[in-house]
Known about the structure:
By secondary structure, this protein is α+β, with helices and mostly antiparallel strands.
Amino acid sequence: MPELPEVEGVVRAFAPEAIGRTVSDITVSDIVIESKAQGREAIIKGMSTADFIQQMKKMTIVNVTRRSKYIYMNLQKGNNDYLLVSHLGMSGAWFVVNSIDEVSELKFRRHIHVIFTMEDGGLLVYSDIRRFGELRLLNVEADHPPLLKMAPEPFDEIAHSHFLDLAQLPKYAEKPIKEVIMDGQVISGCGNIYATEALFKMKIHPTRKARRISLKRKTELFYVIVDILQESIDAGGSTISDYRNINGESGGMQNRLKMYGRKVCLNCETDTKSVRIAGRTSVYCPKCQR
Length: 290
């Protein structure tokens, strides 16, 4: 799943290509239409496909930002403001092209689910191989309350104290630290990849209970996470399988990862082990991480 750095990369590339452009028409794939007809929320969330298409027509994109792992597109139509929230799920990707043929990889061309045709003739294309992503049209952020529960951005001044305050609450104190730092209400945007990297750097076992980590070590861990997220942003994110930027380019952070996906520890050459935490496979070094 794309994490904060990957989404940031998409936003930085997408914003200058999308801002100021107006939607002329929308095409939705048959599989999404059929899924919605059967009562399943496939990609277009919170409204019918027909309503989404009708409401999105004539929308002008006035800004594109990131919030945690979400893409926020601020829209205007007449005198009204709207918010299109996009989550990439496991394998979502945006492409800005003039024709579908410009989506270079076949696997993405085969799984195009929403095409926004712009008034200038260009296309904003959303492809999603596994269809776990979402597009949600809102009047304001508060219309979808779960968005309001996200932790502050990790680079914000208040994020550190927010993390420490929540980590000591009973609901988090007894959880494995890996689960805690992957919780978007505790730290925004840190998923399996960067949690794995941060815990390895700190030499902390991923199953260690949060209460068994000192305040000093929690503080150090928080800033290690922030540093790793920033490093990945600078490297264009991690392309593990299906992450692509809007021009189809891969990231470079995967070449810098020290533990995620490793079979052998780079520090001590011990075979790594894995454990299931919060539904995700957590790789660690049994010798270095305690």
